[in-house]
Amino acid sequence: MAKDMISFSAVEKPGFRQLMQQLQPKYQVPSRTYFKQKIIPAIYNDVEATVKGILGTADKLSFTTDMWTSINMEPYMSITVHFIDQDWKLKSINLGTIPFNDDHTGVNMAEEIKVTLQKWNLNLDDVISGTTDNASNNSTMFTALQKQQLSCFGHNLDLAVNEGLKIDTVSRAVRLVRVAVDTFTRSWKKSRDLNIKQKELNFPEHKLIHDVATRWGSTANMIHRFLEQQQPVNSVLFTDRKHWHVMPDTAIIRCLEQTDNVLFPLSKLTDTFSGDQYVTVSALVPVLEYLSGTLLKIKEGDDSSLEINLKKTILKSIQKRYESEKIKLFLSICTYLDPWFKSSYVSDEMVVKVKDHLLSILDEEIQVQEIIDVEEKMNEESDKVGLSNSNSNVCGSHTSILLQIEKKKKNSEDRID
């Protein structure tokens, strides 16, 4: 039940009962109430204990979260944490998909994050950052949590490309392609005729793709597939006078080809950045440079006016999402610390800022550790001399330890220099 997410009632259905009877005639299958009240809760408790043990190894972590609504119009909030375990392996654990019937305000969302972290024995102070879409309530949530927000690159790319798809000539061409694709997807006869033509013309026997409004990648795939199957599609439409108006003219085809030249190379980026088994944030600065310097670079003399307009629109939109100096520093730190990239994609000016920031963090860590060491040493000496005369001895030792701290700090600064 837990593994396959089937209902409790499955154990009372005739087919399952008959199967168990054949496997073990003497076995009495418990009722669904027994599974609901005993078996599944026991499994949950075991899994919960295991997960808490794994989470206990997390030193620092980040989280991703999203608000969504089920097909039954029930609102939920999903929360997943990401961290590096003691074996330096990236772990991602979903902490819950939680019914969210309160107003979807940033403050309420922040409170749910806190409650969920506390439930799993996680400390909010150990959270470095979180990744979400660009909804305004998410910004409010991060303000309430006092944590760094990093907007989802896939979502930003989706918004940027959709800005490009709003260009009048592109929008008209895409609408016509949708109508043409609808003609085939809604008629089994047309689909059959297309397959026949594909065989006759020795074309790949691929079905046409209909896009989804909320996924720009599906629009890019729809255009790409339509251009691939342009000849068999037109051959089928030409035999039916009622659908001649659906056949794209030369201007539309040229527009689609130019749009495809810009969009199709971008579609691979979405797949690359949707992984959860490898770190992607450190690659964001290199990818932004790759976008501006390669994929969306204007090729003077080669690019048409439409391609230039598309590239400028998409690049401007996506760069706007990362123009904050705070975000630039955060991303540059991630890239600089990645052995794959180091300072290759970070400007000299930013490298100076990154080093200064990292040194300040290191200094804070050293001071915290030294305070801990001081407290431990004071406690040890207090235990040695006894409570009666501990005050005078501790004061003397305290002065000595402070001198040691200054010496350690100076040595640390010398090593850094």
TrEMBL record:
Taxonomy, superkingdom: Eukaryota
Chain segments annotated as coiled-coil in the UniProt record: none
Protein's UniProt name: Transposase
